[in-house]
Amino acid sequence: MNTAPASEIDTATWTAPVLSVIVPTFNERDNIAPLVDKLEAALAGIAFEVIIVDDNSPDGTAELAKTLAVHKPHVRCIHRIGRRGLSSACIEGMASSSAEFVAVIDADHQHDEAILPKMLEKAQAGADVVVGTRYSGEGSSQSGFTASRQMGSTLATQLSGILTGKALSDPMSGFFLMRRSLFNEIVPSLSREGFKILLDIIATGNRQLGRKLAIAEVPYDFRPRHAGESKMSALVVAQFLGLIVSQISRGLLPTSFLLFALVGASGVLVHLVVLTFAFEALDFNFANSQIVATLVAMTTNYILNNELTYADKKLRGVKFWTGLLSFYVVCSFGAIANISVASVLFEAHLANFLIAGIAGVVMSVVFNYAVTRMFTWR
After folding, report:
1. pTM of this prediction?
2. Cα angle 315, 307, 190; round to 5
């Protein structure tokens, strides 16, 4: 064991990385080793490191990454326990870097690592952000996307243009490179939720810096996935739409709150359907029908929030059931807050019954969101 003081340790064989390549992973074990080989070939002659940020994959991705790191000093692993989500993984990886530039690339080999040197050149020439694009110049996404995903990606790109303008052909790209100094400046305002961090970086940077970011693009062909399964799901779509609205509101409405509110709106529909069925078909009296409808709506809201709003904190096993009980309790207090606010506004003649009712609903949603975030999904 080397016990020499730090000042005496020989660092002649070590070179500080110019570029940190962040690879967020979840169940990507079969992709990691060949990806590192490809990055080594593409970045030959450039001082770089690979930072694999793994969300405690059950397939052993983190263990494999750590094994690679034993033999490859330019590879390291951040093994996250109790934290999940692509955006937060990218943020944590970039925050751990001391290199002048940071890049983000998917682990599935669909991004073409061979263009990284060209991306780095453009950043060194002055670009704030350089994006690997599937939709500009010679870039193509035909081989990597199914027809339905191609349509969805095109629609998402058009929606993203609301925030990024015409400066970016592929705002949904998960393949980009940027100056770490820019990241350091805007990271406090970035959302840890969702899967499309590039859109958040550009919208936040434009707003916070008071200027349009200097964006460059490098085209590439989007390839089929090498191994494993795609992470695209209804959750990704819901969180993307939530991010769009959150950015339009300049961050005043967090993505998670918007998802929580949408789940709450679906609960109203569930409540009315169950209430009608219990009262009309089962011939329950109104009070019992209302109790059944309320419990069913609370339960569906809890399940949807656990799957969508708080997917990164998803409760399983015993915690699922204790979480459900705490959700019932919190929502019961939320109902009291709803009734209290609505009653005060109506009885004081400050609003008609409809406005008072809406105010009560808004109050209960805000209350339930804040309290369940603290107690149910800590």
Report:
1. 0.68
2. 95
